[in-house]
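Tutorial, part two.
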Amino acid sequence: MKWSESHIYTLKEAPSDAEIPSHILMVRGGLIKKLAPGIYTYGPLALRSLRKLENIIREELDKAGCTEILMPMVQPRELWEETNRWQEMGDGLLKFQNRNGHDFCLGATHEEVVTDYARKDIKSYRDLPRTLYQIQTKFRDEIRPRFGLMRGREFLMKDAYSFDESKEKAMESYERLKQAYINIFSRVGVDFRMVKADSGNIGGNLSEEFHVLADSGEDHLLVSESGDYAANAEVCPAKDFETIYSQEKELSLEKFETKGCRTIKELSSFLKCAESSLVKTLFFTGVDMPEANRALKDLKPFAVLLRGSDEVNLIKLKNLLGFANPPQMLSDSEVKELTGASPGSCGPVGLQIPIYADTALETLNNIIVGANQDDYHLRNVNYPRDFKVSQFVDIRVAKEGDKNPVGDGKLRSFRGIEVGHIFYLGTKYSKAMNANFLDNNGKSNPLEMGCYGIGVSRTLQAAIEQNNDKDGMIWVKSIAPYKVHICCLDPGDDTVWNETQRIYSDLESKGIDCLVDDRAERPGVKFKDADLLGMPLRITIGGKGLKNNEIEVTKRSDKETVKLAPEGVVQYVEEFYR
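Running the prediction step on this input gives:
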């Protein structure tokens, strides 16, 4: 493809609304252009890469016995009501009415649609197993879209769904699709990790995520120093590497003044003690209700106790209490109404609501907590003498240095960009939607299901986020828009242009796609754009070089340049890609 015949326009300056390198580079390179917040048009370079990524996905899923279909993006309310997710999905589901007043939504996910599709055809165990997939646009009405394609409202996704006759068979499908995912991301060529994860509002009790490692990743991953354990911090069990036990005897309860201390940090400084030796009390509700319309009596509040140095894990809390969504913190005014004190001066003593305490507190005594009176705290507080606990449970966020929960050694911390997520759904959707089959005894049973997603457009940007430098993108070979970027420095010189055409034709005939920069621009401009766009190889053809019987070939990854005779260029490129 000649640059002059394509629609490629690069920018010198970084866009004002881009925050991370990949977003900046994709906009500067003309790969994406914003139409509205979280909604982008894909330029020709991005589309070429997406198609290559889609082909890898299709090849691996087809080898795994999956069948491609295409489902509607517009979905009727009635299907979502069958699973009670019309309300459960919250504001992320974009809903609208047609001219007849019928309710619809834009597809954020397709569990309901695919279950409806399957239940119309799958009647017998002889029809199983089945795994159906699609690559299609999704829409989720993100409250704050950001980072380009990383957290967009409209995005391209591959979603697959397996149907089996038993849990054992469903787990075989799960493992088969997991291996297909490992193959896909290995072929893409990114550094990735597979981690244990929370199923969220998709459902099921087993799920794993695939993350591309990157410093700007939104997810916190914890990986064992030794062994294979890896998990999203949302679900990683938190275990101290060494358990701390209080050795002193229980002392008498004592109230003392802590004027102006509203945070753990301020209290730690005031008392000249470590934050880990203090205990904080947080207040939550599982009732999803706008703050302006709610009364405290309707919120069923509960309290959480943690060491001052720990952070509450909302996903663990959600799963512990069986909520559909993570619990919400009470407002300052609601805390004051409940306890008589402002946040920062609250504690468990005297509370008449459920209290969930982190397991790290079980071995401590004579703790310091808020006195439920502004500017006062209590010391020498002990369980069960001074307060009651509904349950001691792991509800804190695990962190680097914690003990490996399934073996020896400590956990290490990474940042990751979630690009894939696989779920064992069980019968959540099939039972709700009466998707049944007859087994070999003629008995009707609900289908066992699995769900498997890949963020196709997000994977594209994640690959760039992991592979770039100060000059631009560094494409991995498998999904680069073009394998070779040919810089023709003198397109008006017949000798130079003929040699450019010869090399271009030879490479294209061997299946090596090339972008030819034939613009009437200075060499410096062409080199800057070549570095920005980041194709794996750059071939530089100019009159001065040809006079010396030389053509330069540069690897984008390390800027290593070799000078070759014209007749050796094609062979060099072939070997590079072989």
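The first strand starts at residue 32 and ends at 36. In part three we will examine how such features are distributed along the chain.
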